[in-house]
Automatic annotation (TrEMBL):
Protein name: TetR family transcriptional regulator
Domain of life per record: Bacteria
Species of provenance: Paenibacillus campinasensis
GO biological process: regulation of DNA-templated transcription
PANTHER family for the chain: HTH-TYPE TRANSCRIPTIONAL REPRESSOR SCO4008 (PTHR30328:SF54), TRANSCRIPTIONAL REPRESSOR (PTHR30328)
GO MF annotations, alphabetized: DNA binding
Start and end residues of each HTH tetR-type domain: 4-64
DNA-binding region extent: 27-46
InterPro entries for the chain: DNA-bd_HTH_TetR-type_CS, Homeodomain-like_sf, HTH-type_TetR-like_transc_reg, HTH_TetR, Tet_transcr_reg_TetR-rel_C_sf
UniProt KW keywords: DNA-binding
């Protein structure tokens, strides 16, 4: 096994265990047992458990600057940018549920690592806020309080999969990703008084 393979195995093991048991509920020894690595290698590659946690975001969290540049033209218009934003956040959580779970746990627990997470994620949430404000100033989105509306939208994006408590009330099977994204886009746009501005590609997804 080469050194990069060992480092990657440790990262993947940490992601799995942190998502399942939480940061505080996981020991370095457990991570190394899961990775099939010597305990000393965590210190060698990462300098300890806290740095290992930070390395997960270096490795698995999207580069915000690259993403904003990649979608610059779409994000320039609130009516297209907001839908894309919703899609990309939901795809991240659906494609990497372990990182999504870690993020949710840290937020809900108000953990000591929250500041480091805010440094990574707030540029994203700031862009969401700016899209909503731009849409309102252009007469496309309609809401009173940006703070209340932003928190409601963030709740829909970040915690829509946390339905185990309410599972006995739910009548349908979970939607496939494309349908869930389309439903969320239409829900958010409807709440903003902009149902008529839902981009066609999301309407088509919902219809399939």
């Amino acid at each position: 096994m080469t050194e990069p393979d060992i480092r990657t195995r440790i990262l993947l093991a940490a992601k799995t265990l942190f998502a399942k048991h939480g940061f505080d509920g996981t020991t370095v020894r457990q991570v190394c047992e899961e990775a099939g690595a010597n305990v000393a290698l965590v210190s060698y590659h990462f300098g300890g458990k806290e740095n290992l946690f930070s390395a997960l975001f270096d490795e698995f969290f999207p580069n915000v600057d690259d993403a904003l540049e990649q979608y610059r033209d779409i994000l320039a218009q609130p009516e297209t940018g907001l839908a894309l934003f919703i899609e990309q956040v939901m795809l991240f959580k659906l494609n990497d549920p372990d990182m999504g779970n870690i993020l949710e746990q840290e937020i809900l627990m108000h953990s000591p690592r929250l500041q480091a997470i805010q440094d990574r994620t707030f540029p994203i949430w700031s862009k969401l806020r700016d899209l909503m404000l731009d849409g309102r100033s252009q007469g496309k989105f309609h809401f009173q309080s940006i703070d209340t509306t932003l928190l409601l939208v963030l709740g829909s994006l970040l915690f829509h999969k946390r339905n185990y408590y309410f599972r006995p009330l739910l009548l349908e099977e979970p939607q496939p990703p494309e349908a869930a994204i389309a439903a969320t886009v239409e829900y958010v746009y409807g709440a903003l008084g902009a149902a008529h501005l839902v981009p066609e590609r999301y309407r088509q997804r919902d219809a399939r």
